[in-house]
Design a protein that fits this description.
By secondary structure, the protein is of the alpha+beta class. Among the domains are: 104 residues, Arc Repressor Mutant, subunit A (Orthogonal Bundle); 91 residues, no CATH class. The chain is built from 15 helices and seven strands. The strands form two sheets. It has a four-stranded mixed β-sheet with strand order 3-2-1-7. Strands 4-6-5 form a three-stranded antiparallel β-sheet.
């Protein structure tokens, strides 16, 4: 079923719908509210009842067997513990988490050898988060409508899951799953707002890259945002970082999608920088004059590979100049592109000792 065009209850304006009596927060730290009052550790019943409630909340309404709860609460030391202990803790939690309605069990429902949270009576933040993201990312919701929801929801999603519960080893799987899901949301959100907020989308995609530097989808979303924002130089630098990481970690090059966007960024970068275009054109014209070629002639190749045309040479020089490091801070003036060409003819076998970078006015304006 496709979502309606209006915001869901969790992100609607305050006052549109009353919150549930019991609210459980797992992101940024464990917290339980009953009728607006925060329960302290003793009111929840201690560490074991608290972890039992956490286990049920992470199950998001799905039943959890009593045997599974025993292994989660006592880890490897579950020998000698029985489901009777679990039943005692559930009774204690039901006492401290009253909800309106005739149901005797309150927010914790009993199943066949299992327990579950009644999400009709309990609001769990990770459940609400997933519902809101699903709504905002649906194709029927416009980027303009989704953007404020994505901002609020992603800010919440990036909070750590139960950071104070460091002794429960079974929580590690839940944390990894939350980080994986958050990464997917960041990438999807960046692509959603690409046309209206590419710079913000790039920030979200970059956070996904920081969490997983080998996520090709995150790199693609980041480069697309840079392309739409007109930040071609930054996009080219990012692609170079991506290429090196893929080569070092995976032993392969980026996929066809990333290579395609790199080619577009390279062309757009060249077309957008008129100062650099004039510089490269002048260098190549001087080079052609020096070797007695016509401007439109291809430049000879010394290793038998296909000969480069003037336009191809211009684009290659653009890429090299953008990727070169800044000149070292010395009293010497940085050599010009013409100096580099003349030096190349005088000493063709001598490797360069310093690579200089020309910073264009277009790059200077990119933050």
């Amino acid at each position: 079923m496709r979502p309606e065009s209006r915001e869901p209850a969790h992100v609607a304006a305050v006052g549109d719908e009353a919150p549930l009596a019991v609210q459980i927060s797992l992101l940024g730290g464990f917290r339980v509210q009953v009728a607006g009052s925060v329960l302290g550790p003793r009111q929840v019943g201690g560490s074991k009842p608290r972890r039992l409630l956490i286990a049920l909340a992470l199950a998001r309404g799905a039943p959890v067997s009593k045997d599974r709860l025993v292994s989660m609460l006592w880890d490897a030391g579950a020998q000698g513990q029985s489901t009777a202990n679990i039943e005692t803790y559930v009774s204690l939690l039901r006492k401290h988490l009253p909800t309106a309605g005739p149901a005797r069990e309150g927010p914790i429902a009993t199943g066949f050898g299992s327990y579950s949270l009644d999400l009709g009576r309990v609001d769990v933040d990770v459940v609400a988060l997933a519902e809101d993201m699903s709504w905002a990312l649906d194709a029927s919701i416009t980027p303009e409508t989704a953007l404020p929801v994505l901002r609020r929801t992603l800010a919440k999603a990036q909070l750590p899951l139960l950071p104070e519960e460091f002794e429960a080893r079974w929580l590690e799987d839940a944390r990894r799953e939350h980080e994986r899901q958050t990464g997917e949301w960041l990438v999807a959100a960046a692509e959603k707002v690409l046309a209206i907020a590419p710079r913000e989308g790039a920030q979200w995609a970059r956070r996904a890259i920081e969490a997983d530097p080998l996520d090709e989808g995150a790199w693609y979303a980041y480069l697309r945002c840079k392309e739409v924002a007109g930040q071609y130089a930054e996009g080219l630098r990012a692609y170079d970082i991506c290429r090196r990481q893929f080569s070092e970690e995976l032993g392969c090059a980026p996929g066809p999608r990333l290579q395609g966007i790199y080619a577009r960024l390279l062309g757009d970068s060249f077309d957008a920088d008129q100062d650099l275009e004039q510089l490269i054109a002048a260098v190549i014209r001087l080079h052609g004059y020096a070797v007695g070629e016509q401007v439109g002639d291809p430049i000879a190749s010394r290793d038998g590979r296909p000969r480069l045309s003037v336009d191809q040479a211009r684009r290659a020089l653009v890429a090299l100049l953008r990727r070169a490091p800044m000149a070292p801070a010395t009293g010497l003036a940085a050599p010009t592109a013409g100096d580099a060409v003349r030096s190349h003819h005088r000493q063709p076998q001598r490797p360069p000792t310093t690579v200089w970078r020309i910073r264009t006015t277009h790059e200077a304006g990119v933050q």
